[in-house]
């Protein structure tokens, strides 16, 4: 019977670059020892999802790219995140950020920051932020305007958010199966990552919920992983 290592290697028979990356994994130089101590902590499915994303990405990896010090360091550090990741979807997000580094769309410092933040966010936390960002996009200022207006009247940040807050809140609760009183606690926790910021100002004195917006940091990470 073929081992997982052999099956994984054969999956990329036509791509020597990906095969060479597989060999960089500790214990991966010999195919039959690929599922070694480190990869016992990384399910074969997660490993394959990561290499699939690298293989199918918009950037074609070359020997020059994967031999650079920055890429090698990013590859190894991302493997550590992947080994602790539960779903293929999040694994693909990590791979996309690696590819953006390889394409010189971000520098190495940005790569470290973005992957660290992504690793720190749970699947549900990322989903909450994504839903919030979706609603924010629906209430952007008109082209040429700096502020959102309703019937010609400028709305402050909390007024804009309150236009859709209940819809957002209900969608989170129904889609992610979160208890209504749990969402507020999760929004407090998410703020540790710098991806969510509560609105500040005198108008917040009357609100007990963590009403705010996603930050530029989250928008940058979202753009990177969807590129």
E-strand count: 4
Low confidence ranges: 30-38
With helices defined by DSSP (H or I, 4 residues minimum), what is the helix count? Answer: 12
**Structural class by secondary-structure content:** mainly alpha
Q: Approximately how much helix is present in the residues?
A: 55-70%
**Distance linking N and C termini:** 39 Å
Order of helical and strand elements: HHHHHHHHEEHHHEEH
| Overall average pLDDT | 85
**Strand order across the biggest sheet?**
1-2
Q: Which descriptor suits the 3D outline?
A: elongated
Q: Compute the CA-based radius of gyration.
A: 21 Å
Largest sheet: number of strands, sense, barrel closure: 2 strands, antiparallel
Tell me what portion of residues adopts beta-strand conformation. Answer: under 5%
How would you characterize this protein structure?
By secondary structure, this protein is mainly alpha-helical. The protein has helices at 4-11, 16-24, 44-56, 63-66, 69-82, 88-102, 108-120, 123-138, 157-162, 165-176, 183-190, 216-225, and strands spanning 149-150, 153-154, 196-198, 212-214. A two-stranded antiparallel ribbon has the order 1-2. A two-stranded antiparallel ribbon has the order 3-4. Strand 1 and strand 2 form a beta hairpin. The longest helix has 16 residues, at 123-138. The protein is elongated.
């Amino acid at each position: 019977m073929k081992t997982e290592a052999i099956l994984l290697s054969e999956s990329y028979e036509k791509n020597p670059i990906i095969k060479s990356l597989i060999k960089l994994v500790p214990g991966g130089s010999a195919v039959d020892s690929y599922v070694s101590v480190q990869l016992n902590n990384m399910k074969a499915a997660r490993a394959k999802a990561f290499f699939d994303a690298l293989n199918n990405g918009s950037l074609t990896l070359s020997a020059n790219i994967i031999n650079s010090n920055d890429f090698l360091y990013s590859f190894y550090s991302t493997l550590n995140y992947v080994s602790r990741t539960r779903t293929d979807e999040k694994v693909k997000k990590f791979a996309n950020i690696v590819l953006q580094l390889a394409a010189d769309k971000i520098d190495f410092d940005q790569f470290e920051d973005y992957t660290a933040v992504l690793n720190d966010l749970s699947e549900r936390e990322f989903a909450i932020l994504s839903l919030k960002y979706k609603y924010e996009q629906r209430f952007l200022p008109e082209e040429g305007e700096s502020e959102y207006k309703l019937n010609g009247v400028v709305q402050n940040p909390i007024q804009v958010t309150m236009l859709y807050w209940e819809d957002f809140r209900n969608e989170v609760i129904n889609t992610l199966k979160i208890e209504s009183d749990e969402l507020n606690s999760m929004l407090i926790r998410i703020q540790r990552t710098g991806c969510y910021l509560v609105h500040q100002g005198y108008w917040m004195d009357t609100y007990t919920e963590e009403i705010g917006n996603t930050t530029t940091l989250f928008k940058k990470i979202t753009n990177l992983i969807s590129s």
